[in-house]
Amino acid sequence: xxxxxxxxxxxxxxxxxxxxxxxxxxxxxxxxxxxxxxxxxxxxxxxxxxxxxxxxxxxxxxxxxxxxxxxxxxxxxxxxxxxxxxxxxxxxxxxxxxxxxxxxxxxxxxxxxxxxxxxxxxxxxxxxxxxxxxxxxxxxxxxxxxxxxxxxxxxxxxxxxxxxxxxxxxxxxxxxxxxxxxxxxxxxxxxxxxxxxxxxxxxxxxxxxxxxxxxxxxxxxxxxxxxxxxxxxxxxxxxxxxxxxxxxxxxxxxxxxxxxxxxxxxxxxxxxxxxxxxxxxxxxxxxxxxxxxxxxxxxxxxxxxxxxxxxxxxxxxxxxxxxxxxxxxxxxxxxxxxxxxxxxxxxxxxxxxxxxxxxxxxxxxxxxxxxxxxxxxxxxxxxxxxxxxxxxxxxxxxxxxxxxxxxxxxxxxxxxxxxxxxxxxxxxxxxxxxxxxxxxxxxxxxxxxxxxxxxxxxxxxxxxxxxxxxxxxxxxxxxxxxxxxxxxxxxxxxxxxxxxxxxxxxxxxxxxxxxxxxxxxxxxxxxxxxxxxxxxxxxxxxxxxxxxxxxxxxxxxxxxxxxxxxxxxxxxxxxxxxxxxxxxxxxxxxxxxx
Amino acid sequence: xxxxxxxxxxxxxxxxxxxxxxxxxxxxxxxxxxxxxxxxxxxxxxxxxxxxxxxxxxxxxxxxxxxxxxxxxxxxxxxxxxxxxxxxxxxxxxxxxxxxxxxxxxxxxxxxxxxxxxxxxxxxxxxxxxxxxxxxxxxxxxxxxxxxxxxxxxxxxxxxxxxxxxxxxxxxxxxxxxxxxxxxxxxxxxxxxxxxxxxxxxxxxxxxxxxxxxxxxxxxxxxxxxx
Lengths: 594, 227
Fold this sequence. Notes:
The complex is a heterodimer.
Chain A: H1 43-51, H2 65-75, H3 84-96, H4 112-120, H5 122-130, H6 135-139, H7 146-149, H8 155-159, H9 177-184, H10 189-196, H11 212-216, H12 219-227, H13 256-260, H14 276-293, H15 307-328, H16 340-350, E1 357-363, H17 369-385, E2 389-394, H18 399-414, E3 423-428, H19 432-441, H20 443-446, E4 473-478, H21 481-492, E5 500-504, H22 509-517, E6 525-528, H23 529-540, H24 545-593
Helix pairs in contact in A: 9-10, 14-24, 15-24, 16-23, 17-18, 17-23, 17-24, 19-21, 21-22, 23-24
Chain B: H1 2-45, H2 49-86, H3 92-111, H4 117-152, H5 156-172, H6 183-218
Helix pairs in contact in B: 1-2, 2-3, 5-6
């Protein structure tokens, strides 16, 4: 169902309407097009049409003379040959004739531009006038609009007709629909200029106040508003044309938002809701960022907590204790207790026949020389004193010099020159485990020369050696567990393997002791560290290197124990103090932040 | 176009020749390594005089090759520090010192012997004090680190660690005023039971790793000789 804006225009003269309601001018009253299909018109219009005779031209009592004339003009030439769509247009035109109070005094509008246009294009006017009249035009001259039939009327006079009252009074409605109609149908622009363009700016509807017409409008008007055919009242003042010939006309063009935005735009919350805790964090972060730009004051570090100071202090204390012990002889630790494994080694050396050979592997680094020599000097001295010939080898490049240094130490503590046949230094065995295996397979072929480039096996003391089985004992001096393991593994597969004596540093003892404590011993004798060296010296009755070191060793251990306890307690106190400081700082920061 | 085709064919044939050469080299090296390993391994288990003789020869070759490898390593060390000295790179002074003492030691060892008075003077005056001093510094650092342990990691493991150190140190030296009955027994138990238990685990792991590595080499899975 299509409703026009005229359908909602109340008729003030209708007796059926209440007094306070606007009179309705039904479209059917304008001519013979009154019998419209009942489904296209509201029920109240059809009823009104039925009450009035067809062809009657009611004269509005309140209408002005020009209005009645227009109504007569619309009725001219209406017959059955007019198509229905033209009739509908005429109905619309008739309904567009709104009652205009005659007493309104419109202000003249400057339409000189229209006269200028006519003067600039006289040919067009003449062309229109000289067009050959069609038969239909001749037969129906009354259908011409009034402004064509009255060319003498000046545009200014025609435009002076007030379209709407200046102020809508109660009972009257502001009707900008006619203007919108002319915009939607530009074909009827001449009529618009003559009859419907208001001569003065339309009064703006009060903001936020709905017009009475809107309040009384039926539901169909809302549909028209939604389609953009008419504008919603109350917003006309916001769409007033500011420039051009249509200046002052409101609601002439549909506002863009009415076309593009049919729904209410969503509103978003733009204010950030920040709780107090987060505000405190923000302040803390700002303080941190600002503090980055400020130069930090020198951090105060406790002197006792600085690393270099502690290291130097520990070194000084250790040196002082050692020098003090060296000078005073304090402390005097007890000799290490008796050990069965040391006794076994001693018994093995004591029972060794003179003239036999012992293979000695010197496989420790120079840094461990003191410890290894302290553990082995007494044993080596015993071997040499018993007339046992030593064959010195090494799997370390510095081994030959280590062996020479050990022999020099033994000679220094024995206070006698070692015999030339006491030992031969075969030097370095390259190749790691493979070289070791090759040496144990055939020592003569692998190392035929001594370090001094002499023929090793031509000496009568060593000429009897042809293989590993010719050694009475194999003594391995090392501080490295890997080297000791290589010797054990390469000797293990020798069928003529002699007993193995391991003289180890204290740090390597745990790794080699499993070979010694196994049921099938791969290491038969074991000496480890300075303590076993002292035990062996006590058994041998030969106080040499180990015994001279024992006092200083005891003093150093005591100093280490004291330093460890003291600085551990100190560091625990510093740690607790630092934690308290950090806790207090966090507490202050939290207070500042909150 | 014909020239390009000929060049392409030439490049292809050259690349193919190089690839084949590399492949043959890999196959040859793998065959030598596998055969050598198999012979040496078999010499441990199979008592055949010829096999043992071949095995001994191979082991001697290995010793000679290791000695040559040591010389090559020394030559490379000298070349690196020589280049560093010539190019005046950072630390060039230390390279000069290294080259100088390398030459001095080499001359002393070659002219006299590794155990001559010159070589022993170098050993006693330079090598021995330096390495001993390093161990002395290690003692200071170990004490310092142990004391800082409770500061940085104040937990029960740190306390147990420090307590174990103290017990072992107290048990190492018997000093009358500080002699605590049974402390030496506790120290011996720690060393001969606790420490040996861990050491045995390490040894078993090392042995298994060695066997696995040897098998991979013998089967050709690892070919470090390919370069």
